[in-house]
Amino acid sequence: MHELTLTRFTLSLLLDADFRSVNLEVTGVNHLPVITAFDIEGRDGFDALRAVVGDPTKAGEPLAFDLPEDFGTPRAGPGGQWTRGDLLSHNQLKLELFDRFGVLRPPATATWPSSSRLPHEQSGWGDRWGVNITTIEDREKSQAGHVADLRALIEAPEVPTLPSGELVAPLIDSMLRDRPRDFPLNIPNTGQCPDLPMDVVVESICTVDGSGVRGRDRAECPPGLAAHLRRVSGSQELTVEAALSGSRELVFEAMLADPLASRIDWDQLQSMTDELLDATAAWLPQFA
């Protein structure tokens, strides 16, 4: 869900718009949402984005404010300030998908595995878009950072008031106080994502109020991406069934269904599955 929040932020910077005015239409599954349309105060957001991407004179224009050091892209503008061109370069893969399919694929950062649900190899796929697979060392470093942040928060004399970007607090507020708000959420499909089977868990923009949570839009994906979504969704659903049943066979089937497994040898994938389950046996005893 944070992927869509980051994407709204990126679009607001590119289009000189208020973050709150960027209204997305979304279909997909967790970690693979697809923006099928968006508007800015009633204006077609895709048209506005095409105008920026297609105008080379805008590349050198500085952003409304600078971005943090860890955002990922070197600052190339005057005095080290970020420009639209920097941000466009930072999102090459998303823009390629936009050009080819007419939709946007979050997340908005190139350092995160933005093609984590799209086929990728060590052979160099993704290099042309500045996309790299994160390593175990990368993840360990990230986890160490999270642990340090939590420790600092626990030891702080006051609780910070700056919003974290997570949606749990406003979601609870909407339900308890009956204040309707729209959030990107994962709920069972009741038709908001027509390209995916009914009742599977999907990610879409949902309306939350005192009566509960429900899908807001009916968003359809281009056929090629829809087929990819169905495969990822199938892998996710098999993972849940495997967890509930304790079936190692279903874990292997879930691994096999994942698009990233398409170029892995069958026996190697089985070994990976066994190694994963054996390493996590203390927390997942149902697979013993």
Descriptive notes:
This protein is α+β, with helices and mostly antiparallel strands and 288 residues long. Helix content is 40%, strand content 14%. The protein is built from nine helices and six strands; from the N terminus they run αβββαααααβββααα. The chain has helices at residues 2-14, 45-53, 84-90, 92-101, 136-155, 168-177, 223-245, 248-257, 266-279, and strands at 22-29, 32-40, 43-44, 181-188, 201-209, 212-215. The chain has a three-stranded antiparallel β-sheet. The protein has a three-stranded antiparallel β-sheet with strand order 4-5-6. A hairpin with a 2-residue loop joins β1 and β2 (32-40). α7 (223-245) runs antiparallel to α8 and α8 packs across α9 (266-279). It is globular and about 60 Å long. The model is unreliable at 108-118 (pLDDT under 50).
Write the layout of secondary structure elements.
Elements: H1 2-14, E1 22-29, E2 32-40, E3 43-44, H2 45-53, H3 84-90, H4 92-101, H5 136-155, H6 168-177, E4 181-188, E5 201-209, E6 212-215, H7 223-245, H8 248-257, H9 266-279
Antiparallel strand pairs: 1-2, 2-3, 4-5, 5-6
Give me some keywords for this one.
9 helices; single chain; 288 residues; alpha+beta; 14% strand; globular; 6 strands; three-stranded antiparallel sheet
Strand count, sense and barrel status of the largest sheet are: 3 strands, antiparallel
- First-residue to last-residue Cα separation: 33 Å
Query: What is the 3D shape?
Result: globular
Helix- and strand-based class? alpha+beta
Low-confidence stretches: 108-118
> In percent, how helical is the residue content?
40-55%
Taken as a percent bin, the fraction of beta residues is 5-15%
Number of strands: 6
The strand line-up of the biggest sheet is: 1-2-3
Radius of gyration: 21 Å
Task: Give the mean pLDDT.
Answer: 86
How would you spell out the order of helices and strands?
Answer: HEEEHHHHHEEEHHH
Counting H and I runs of at least 4 residues, what is the number of helices?
Answer: 9
